[in-house]
Fold this protein.
Amino acid sequence: MASVNKVIIVGNLGRDPETRYMPNGDAVTNVAVATTESWKDKNSGEKKELTEWHRITFYRKLAEIAGQYLKKGSQIYVEGRLQTRKWTDKDGVERYTTEIIADTMQMLGSRQGMGGSAGAPMDDDYGSSAPAPRQSSGGAGAGGGAARSGASRPAPNFSDMDDDIPF
């Protein structure tokens, strides 16, 4: 019979990542991610919450990226697998830890503090009345290209789009 060991987590880091290096030079980064479930109690009508904490371990290049760019409060999407390991504490007692070994990670939320010049906060102007400037999709990556004014660009023509997206 086939089996599947797959975990998908979307949550927030509870503390800054801890990065170490193995004797062979490979990076290992550990994080604690919180996921919160909320519901309304049927009897009392009050809102209830349950927060679950997950240990996530990144290896090699993904560990270096997580250690460099993530920080307490960062929201991330992680795919991986569950793994339980046995270890001995300082008193000689055998203990077990179940953790998620990450295969992929996607940073979510704002880009504040990532890649900008030191000390210059990014402008995440959510909820402002002015529309945000758009970047062209012609090869400008997260590092951005030169900003263009809206007046110098022709308006996009969406009537010629032929796709099957149902929304």
Notes: The longest strand covers residues 94-108. Residues 60-69 form the longest helix (10 residues). Confidence is low (pLDDT under 50) at residues 113-150. The chain is about 5% helix and 40% strand.
